[in-house]
Amino acid sequence: MAFRRVVKGTILIGGGAVATVFGLSQFSQYRNKHGALASVEASECRPLHMHSTLPSRESQLEALRETCEFDILIIGGGATGSGCALDAVTRGLTTALVERDDFSSGTSSRSTKLIHGGVRYLQTAIMKLDFDQYRMVKEALHERANLLEIAPHLSSPLPIMLPVYKWWQLPYYWVGIKLYDLVAGSQCLKSSYVLSKSKALELFPMLRKDKLVGAIVYYDGQHNDARMNLAIALTAARYGAATANYTEVVCLLKKTDPKSGASRVCGARCRDVLTGQEFDVRAKCVINATGPFTDSVRKMDEQKVPNICQPSAGVHIVMPGYYSPDNMGLLDPSTSDGRVIFFLPWQKMTIAGTTDTATEVTSHPIPTEEDINFILTEVRNYLSCDVEVRRGDVLAAWSGIRPLVTDPNSKDTQSISRNHVVHVSDSGLVTIAGGKWTTYRSMAEDTIDAAVRAHGLRAGPCKTVGLFLQGGEGWSPTLYIRLVQDYGLESEVAQHLSNTFGDKAFEVAKLAQVTGKRWPIVGNRLVSEFPYIESEIEYAIQEYACTAVDVIARRTRLAFLNVQAADEALPRIIEIMGKKLKWSEQKKKEQLAEAKKFLYYEMGYKARSEQLTDRSEITLSPADIERYKKRFHMFDKDGKGFITIVDVQRVLESINLQINERALHEILNEVDLNKNGQVELNEFLQLMTAIQKGFVSGSRLAVLMKAAEENIHQRDRISVDRSGGGL
């Protein structure tokens, strides 16, 4: 108690002084800006009209082709571009948005899933007296509060624990975290607090115990990033913006200004990626909001312009939910190489990341084995030795490219800006770059303000503060109960629909097919262990999903949660989409191949397959080899040296278990390293070595064969569901 009193005294004296210096300096400016904005909105705002139904993609493309001239054309459908579209259209500007892939297909779907101000940025602001860093943190904390308000179904506060292993760090971190609360002011989610060692272990039992002094818990926000991005884009579309995914900008259109004789950007030549059709979209102002691809669009405007984007790759991994408590994250403030690692519960799984390494700009970033193992090593440093952190428990892995930028408006063009940058070129192209997910709305506001000034557009004030995103306005935490009662959905499925679609969840429930079971009455799952149901596929098409990857990665998050489960769901997803979109058999095959390629390279399946290859070394002890040979020969009765589906079926029939041939093929294919349709003894021993080392977990063949051996005389039923293992 005495030590805690000392800590609190430190906060009141040291923390209060620093917070006062920084906080009061910004408070007046902040209140003046937003107070003035509020009064303008109150006096001038007109009621906004929202479409009751979402326009189809075809009608959106028609609007792009047929509109004589838009006020604003936005290139890029990530969080920032979609935010710009929503800001512009709600100001009364005719607005168009084009995205060459899918909404949120890039960086915006590959984040740490946090809505935060940035504790580490506040530390830098204080230690270096960096006013810009402080201002960025304050702005982000304001935007955090706004985002939690306008999309309550997609976001929520999350407590994050900062474990402390040295006594002197406790007051140091306590002051820093309390300053974080103080800078947030009235928008602080919940007050941070100190935990004793025993209480910290009670809340986070997986934590490493030795040398633990205590912990500090603070609050930030968490969200479903891809669905949040989509909600922004769909809300813009409902307010009248012509938004189209899979629409690529081929080149910028220019005209000569009759007054100055200068060349001015006046639109873009676009191509429908799905059909190949090209058309012009004309606009008074063109905004470049393409994230890592900022420079490629800038060079369409002026070929010799220097690059401003400094791309950095951040890798994340997903592990089973048992690695973390259901509602408590973990922050490692100083990894072995000085970076920050988050370890967070997300969608009933555990997400860990991120790395920060220089990279080349690409549409298809690939997580490397080196980065995956770095994250696993850091996780091991903080978890109890009782918890075996296995490489095989990595269920998915991805890499996102963070577009750090240098400011072309600054004299020092080499220094990286941690804040966002808005730049207007000589020809009128407006570029918004840098920044962070949390501040997308204020970035959009600054961008549209700059566009209005630079192009003399007639526009009302910004209206996006407090403007609900699609699904948010009619949502409540108990909405899922109505879904259960009115439609007969499973409780878990109903909660998922409520927390994904908000008040639009009823539209998804109406599409759900009858199961034919006593319970649930409707809602056939795509895979048994996840609450995604088939009617979401049909609804995804209404939400502009055009490919199978759109569904597994962004309309659902299956690819980000468990790449193997996503792979198993693909045939049914493609079957449903093919029926609705009238795909040919050839088209279905192409979609399956593209989706499998996406999972293999971008979601970590490649890294998984490299854990077990036909070149893997067998390092089992002689006793283990004999034990596993005996198990193998129980299936290989004929002594062929390999087992096939027929051999497995024969053993299963002897214990009265039936598994369909397709499932058996999938089970054997996981271990069939040379892909010859059979599992050889050597392959089986390589599998057992990989399992023993922790490189592979949850192998259904290994579980099945072990269970068959143990129960061959008891004739018990054997479960072959995935056991929580991963890549």
TrEMBL record:
CDD domains: EFh
Enzyme Commission number, as recorded: 1.1.5.3
Domain of life: Eukaryota
Pathway(s) the chain acts in: Polyol metabolism; glycerol degradation
GO cellular component: mitochondrial inner membrane
Reactions performed catalytically: a quinone + sn-glycerol 3-phosphate = dihydroxyacetone phosphate + a quinol
Gene3D superfamilies: Alpha-glycerophosphate oxidase, cap domain, D-Amino Acid Oxidase, subunit A, domain 2, EF-hand, FAD/NAD(P)-binding domain
Claim: Repeat is one of the keywords in the record: yes
Chief location: mitochondrion
Domain EF-hand stretches: 623-658, 659-694
Biological process according to GO: camera-type eye development; gluconeogenesis; glycerol-3-phosphate metabolic process; glycerol-3-phosphate shuttle; multicellular organism growth
Required cofactor names: FAD
Alphabetical keyword list: Calcium, FAD, Flavoprotein, Glycoprotein, Metal-binding, Mitochondrion, Oxidoreductase, Repeat, Transit peptide
Localization (cell): Mitochondrion
Gene Ontology MF annotations: calcium ion binding; glycerol-3-phosphate dehydrogenase (quinone) activity
InterPro entries: DAO_C, DAO_C_sf, EF-hand-dom_pair, EF_Hand_1_Ca_BS, EF_hand_dom, FAD-dep_OxRdtase, FAD/NAD-bd_sf, G3P_DH_FAD-dep
The family this protein is said to belong to: Belongs to the flavin monoamine oxidase family. FIG1 subfamily.
Function: Calcium-responsive mitochondrial glycerol-3-phosphate dehydrogenase which seems to be a key component of the pancreatic beta-cell glucose-sensing device.
Protein name per the record: Glycerol-3-phosphate dehydrogenase
Organism: Podarcis muralis (Wall lizard)
Taxonomic lineage of the native organism: Eukaryota, Metazoa, Chordata, Craniata, Vertebrata
Gene this chain is encoded by: GPD2
